[in-house]
Amino acid sequence: MIICIDFDGTCVTHEFPKVGKDIGAVPVLKRLVESGHEIFLFTMRSNRPISNPTGDETIQDVTGMFVENAVTWFKENGIPLLGINENPTQKNWTISPKAYGHLYIDDSALGCPIKEVHLTTNGDKTTKYVDWVKVERILECMNILPHTTKSSSSTKINLKLSDLQSNLQKYSEIDKELERAEKKHPNFPIDMFRQLAVMQEEAGEVTKAVLHYHYENGTLEHVKEELIQTAAMCMRMLQSLSVL
Ligand SMILES: [Mg+2]
Q1: How far, in Å, is the centroid of ligand 1 from the Cα of 131?
Q2: Distance (Å) from CA 233 to ligand 1 centroid
Q3: Where exactly are the structural domains of the chain?
Q4: How many A from CA of 126 to the centre of ligand 1?
Q5: Most exposed of 61, 82, 156, 235 (fewest Cβ within 10 Å)?
Q6: Homologous superfamily of 2-141 in CATH?
């Protein structure tokens, strides 16, 4: 898959004309390359060796080798690039100036997960950039990256499971069940109605276990098992909601 990646606010914090700070893009971009995908730099940066009025007061007249600085960032982080702002192969079949890719990751794109960080303690100055924890999770949900337990554990941190100190025993049982389910069925549906069907199927098992306990010779242990499985499915739904 050819993946077009924006630079400022996407690979690093917005600090143009400087190269911004690390925001966690490197390990995910490396995983994409390791999984056989090709990265393509798609940026508004250009090399601007000579000062020239921009014609727009919101855009500074700055000089520098801005695109080269971005390319150096990729080189220094060991991420090979297929191209810069133009796909060399597309000239054979189109004159369109749009760079050809199968997927675009850009902080300006609709739906791209964004993290907002306060730069001042009173919160009046903030910066926004791509949330790579969520991007990694989405890429896994879309089967563009192989599934790992690493990103699901970071999602669990977001859900503050660790804050739930009381009933720790019960939560760890749900956690274990969630891990077991993720391993057994790595491709959890993205569609919420299908997710609901999976969760409701487990909830139906709880009903069955409760009826069995009350009217036949069922055990409380079985009711508990089914509740844990249902709770794990609820957690799975919550996790996939948190990436939207
Ligand atoms: Mg950007």
Answers
A1: 13
A2: 36
A3: 2-141, 149-242
A4: 15
A5: 61
A6: HAD superfamily/HAD-like (3.40.50.1000)
